[in-house]
């Protein structure tokens, strides 16, 4: 299949960060000036006149917390680097104590909200939602507390977390999808999902894609986390939405897009201030609100599959116009169309929507892939196209293949803008990435060196697009300008990983030989058989507090609490 490279660049509305071109940065015409993400970024651009101050900063960065406080009093950070300077304090504020196998309820702990106010958990029968509020451990001693072990009543889960409520979300034949959770910080709303069992033997229905399984009922619930009130719900019947890791939905400001894989429809919902879910747009068979009315009024209402879906029409039109304009010679244009467009016409028609995200309030970033990939993880390795779709004009603005180096260049230099959300928490804006950290490219070069070919490397990097909403922890302990760690064992990305029998080390970037703290999942009995065990980590967005959760088949879950004592 040919590679239709777009001549039209990414959408450039004034409100979207992708509007700025690399040439606009005077320091480097090919690469945008990185935002200040860490101390290294701010120190690298320090003027010569600040040499004395830099030496003094280095003197006071002795690992002593008190000296850092004095440093903060008489040394002002550079403009725009205040938060980065404050985050350097976490080099001294680390989890220094671990309670192994803490006495806690047998729940499935999902994650901390990005503002750190709530810890979300689900019951083991996937019926109930339980919400906790983090509290700090306090206890008193008759003598010096540091020389004593924690009292027995302090080594309990309720010493760190206060349960606010437990509510039932799912009915008897429905189950909560524990991988799905989106948080709207401005109103402290949480979006959850329940579903019935998945059926691979789905009946043939008009408009449904053959080969995509069916779920009898999928329900999205909007919950106010402050008191557990269920504000609204939205149900989809006999449909399939990929709920794993929140892949099938994306939250941007007050808008949520939900992708129906079975009916190839993008549902755009708005979360009102009152807490109601209102469908404001539906993109699929029709792109405009009055398209169906127009067809019926002109007697062109299709029976069966006479018409291609509206979004597919837009895709084919873009590829046709692009192929048409590639050949300026009128005599050769027909042959060029036959070779590059009509020969692969059925392949283009068979493409289906796999995943969608918002770029801004008006543009969607859509991944089209082959239906033969089915609903499996292997779809990332198949042929795929990425389209930028304007919801207002209903036009496809640009199209890239998953091996496009042009798209990878945009992804590498503007990574933050592929998952930017104006209402993200302050802490989430400082997640380390290639454009805003001088340390992230080192890991990228390591991945690139292991790839067998440049094309394979580009496809591997593009497999993560469109970006999965709220999938990374904003904890400063994952900040690559402060700590180094083995990303094969631990990562800011919200995923389960295979358990290791050795502690996971967090090493200081400033002092490469100094281990600041360790995270050891599982029991405190030393090395053990790690086969069949999976671990996940929940780091608080700003407290030196973390949970490491070890899951083993047919055995109770082991939860460790790591905190600063």
UniProtKB/TrEMBL annotation:
InterPro entries: De-etiolated_protein_1_Det1. One of its GO terms (cellular component) is nucleus. Residues 1-43 are annotated as: Disordered. GO terms for molecular function: ubiquitin protein ligase binding; ubiquitin-like ligase-substrate adaptor activity. It holds the Pfam family Det1. GO terms for biological process: positive regulation of proteasomal ubiquitin-dependent protein catabolic process; protein ubiquitination. Residues 16-36 have a biased composition (Polar residues). This is Light-mediated development protein DET1. The lineage of its organism: Eukaryota, Viridiplantae, Streptophyta, Embryophyta, Tracheophyta.
